[in-house]
């Protein structure tokens, strides 16, 4: 899918193309700030976990889950912070629309890493408290719910939008 082909956002009345890009970039950065806060709380929990006394009692599965959760949480943080960092570096350039498209893609990748981190963190806790089977079930529920709400529903909406327009890109 091409971002240009899926534009559904219309300019506000009296809004110039530059104003539209500025508004869309601001809205995207605000959304990423919300996601970044969530991943930072999860990441902080994961960073202190190895220093807890019972961490060494976890088996090999628990340690693997921890490292997957930690790595994916770190990568989600990088993705959610990247658009703001790039905005600082590219401020007052003619690259805002490019930055908007890139930030959108990076944000989607960040959501995928966050989904993995959340699901594996849940699996880690459930595996420690209950057992391996429950860990698979509960983390699967988290992963499937996030995949549905964050990715699949919007993709279905975009597909329906394209179909209702006869497959033509909006102008």
TrEMBL record:
The chain crosses the membrane at residues 32-53, 65-85, 106-126, 132-152. Coiled coil: none annotated. The keyword Transmembrane applies. The keyword Coiled coil does not apply. Keywords: Membrane, Transmembrane, Transmembrane helix. InterPro entries: DUF6328. Residues 1-20 are annotated as: Disordered. This is Amine oxidase.
